């Protein structure tokens, strides 16, 4: 294993060689607070992007060594995500396609009913979309109806789960506000003021995955970064979070697929 480095402008892009493959990765540097421990973290995204986050003053050699120590793990994670990508095709929004809701699979069925209003509902293992009539805008109409249906379900279920989980988050005062907003690489986020943002695609995952993301973001109200204290706090409210996170990561590409 060797490394190959290159830099274009202010964007740092490098790669390392594992076996006979060059694996590219991006380095994101962040300001380092004196009171916080210096740490280099590595994340492999479901779209097969490898991102390394490091203190802004970290030496390139130290970053390289951190990556090389986890080279095998990076390669295996990429291999797993690539396996998922082979089966993921862009949604066409036609009858017979697979949709997910709360971890279960449903078959999309589209029907025409001139007497009915456009609607979406679940029935007998199917996600049934009714259109008043089929025309050239059929695909766009189905996509819009399905997306809106997911958003409505997400707002309802996320509110229920947040209310259920709040008693565990004893460090949170009051009820945090949250918004449902599509994100390409995050399931959720927490602002400095403690406002939560949750990805509507998360509604496709099992409830325990939804709980993990909500608890993760609630922990950020107390600990704003991924420090050791943050992980200890998360473990205290969800001891098996690693298994749940792994389950969510493994299905991410399918859940996020539109």
Summarize it.
This protein has 258 residues and is α/β, with parallel strands linked by helices.
Describe the structure.
This is M48 family metallopeptidase. InterPro entries: UTP_pyrophosphatase-like, YgjP-like_metallopeptidase. Pfam families: YgjP-like. By secondary structure, the chain is an alpha/beta fold. It folds into two domains: 2-85, no CATH class; 98-256, Metalloproteases ("zincins"), catalytic domain (Zincin-like). It has six helices and twelve strands. It has helices at residues 60-69, 71-85, 138-165, 207-222, 228-237, 241-256; strands at 2-8, 11-18, 21-30, 41-44, 50-55, 98-101, 104-112, 119-123, 126-131, 178-180, 188-190, 196-198. It has a five-stranded mixed sheet with strand order 1-2-3-5-4, with helices on one face. Strand 1 and strand 2 form a beta hairpin. The longest helix is centred in the middle third of the chain and has 28 residues, at 138-165. The chain starts with a strand and ends with a helix. Mean pLDDT is 87; it is low at 1-10.
């Amino acid at each position: 294993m060797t490394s190959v480095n290159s830099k274009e402008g202010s964007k740092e892009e490098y790669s390392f060689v594992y076996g006979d493959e060059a694996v590219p990765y991006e380095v994101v540097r962040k300001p380092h607070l004196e009171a916080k421990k210096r740490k280099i973290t590595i994340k492999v995204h479901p779209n097969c992007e490898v991102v390394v986050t490091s203190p802004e003053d970290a030496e390139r050699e130290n970053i390289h060594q951190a990556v090389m120590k986890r080279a095998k793990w990076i390669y295996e994670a990429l291999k797993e995500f690539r396996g998922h990508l082979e089966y993921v095709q862009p949604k066409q929004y036609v009858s017979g396609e697979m949709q997910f809701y709360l971890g279960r699979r449903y078959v999309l069925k589209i029907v025409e009913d001139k007497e009915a209003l456009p609607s979406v509902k679940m029935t007998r293992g199917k996600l049934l979309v009714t259109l008043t009539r089929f025309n050239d805008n059929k695909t766009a109409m189905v996509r819009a109806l399905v997306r809106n249906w997911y958003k409505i379900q997400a707002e309802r279920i996320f509110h229920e789960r947040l209310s259920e989980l709040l008693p565990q988050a004893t460090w949170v005062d009051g009820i945090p506000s949250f918004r449902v907003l599509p994100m390409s690489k995050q399931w959720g986020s927490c602002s400095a003021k403690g406002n939560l943002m949750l990805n509507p695609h998360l509604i496709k995952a099992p409830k325990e995955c939804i709980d993990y993301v909500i608890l993760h973001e609630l922990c950020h109200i107390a600990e704003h970064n991924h420090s050791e204290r943050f992980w200890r706090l998360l473990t205290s409210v969800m001891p098996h979070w690693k298994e749940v996170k792994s389950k969510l990561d493994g299905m991410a590409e399918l859940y996020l697929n539109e």
